[in-house]
Amino acid sequence: MADYLEDAEFGRIQLRRNAHARYVRLRMSEDGQLAVTLPRFAALRHARELIETSRPSIRQWLIKHQQHARVLHDGDRIGQSHTLRFIATQDRSIVVKHDGLVIAVHHPLTMFHTDPAVQKALRPALQKALQKEARAYLPRRLRHLADTYGFAYERVRFGTQKGRWGSCSSRGTVSLNVGLMFLNPELIDYVLVHELCHTRQMNHSPQFWSLVETCLPDYKVRRKRLKTEQPNI
After folding, report:
1. What is the phi-psi region of residue 32: left when phi exceeds 0, alpha when psi lies from -120 to 50, beta otherwise?
2. How far, in Å, CA of 29 to CA of 212, rounded?
3. How far is residue 57's CA from residue 54's CA, in Å, rounded to a whole number?
4. Are 120 and 12 in contact (CB under 8 A)?
5. pTM score, two decimals?
6. Helix 116-149 vs helix 55-68: angle between axes, to the nearest 10 degrees?
7. What spatial distance separates the first Cα and last Cα of the chain, rounded to whole Å?
């Protein structure tokens, strides 16, 4: 069972009760989510005390995570159709509102929009917007490319895989990073074709790249451009 507590500096922190836990532990997941694990009957104050004494370490974790994450700015396009706005307010807390195609992040005047806590707070809304766009666009585009080039696959899955745009299992499941929606259509198509080719060649052999080239003669140009992009959200 998971719950949350709100911290003025770090925002929402996940709480987990574990009957087998003997100590209170604090961890950060790959997507930057802080979580405290507590023994089943431990008082909530123990979680707050651990967070308080761990603030220097948490700040370092957030800095390290931000170095590998996409830093967003006011006016940035989110996916293909959403826009991000940062609004400084007199409030002490960070509030994220999703209004139509605009994601508005209200943050205290004492914080810059690049502050790790502000960037972390907008991630759930960011992922929600990208999920919505990805589910609306990617399956249709994947089906079109598969029909065009004669590929078959079983199903499509979505996620926020760290460090990769997509993958394909030996059973024909194509997994796609919702961060693809940040890319232009030509690069999206390259990733989709790349994964479709893995339904025939589960490797990166010369035969695999020959198959990719048959579909996309300019794949080397697209591949080079893709290397300048980061799949981390």
Report:
1. left
2. 35
3. 5
4. no
5. 0.68
6. 30
7. 26
Residues 6+ apart with CB under 8 A from 89: 106, 107, 108, 109
pLDDT in tens, 120-173: 889 889 989 999 999 999 999 999 999 999 999 999 999 887 678 999 998 899
Ramachandran region, residue 79 (left: φ > 0; alpha: ψ -120 to 50; beta: rest): left
pLDDT at position 178 is 94
Contact call for residues 162 and 198 (beta carbons, < 8 A):
no
Q: What is the DSSP letter of 70?
A: P
Amino acid at 230: Q
Structure token digits, residue 176: 């796609």
Tokens linked to 22: 């003997």
pLDDT of residue 162: 67
φ/ψ of 178, rounded to 5, equals -65, -15
Closest CA to 124 of 94, 154, 153: 94
- Among the listed residues 123, 163, 158, 124, the one whose alpha carbon sits nearest the alpha carbon of residue 138: 158
Q: How confident is the model at residue 1 (pLDDT cuts 50, 70, 90)?
A: very low
Cα–Cα distance, 14 to 5 (Å, whole number)? 7
Question: What is d(CA 191, CA 145) in angstroms, rounded to the nearest whole number?
Answer: 11
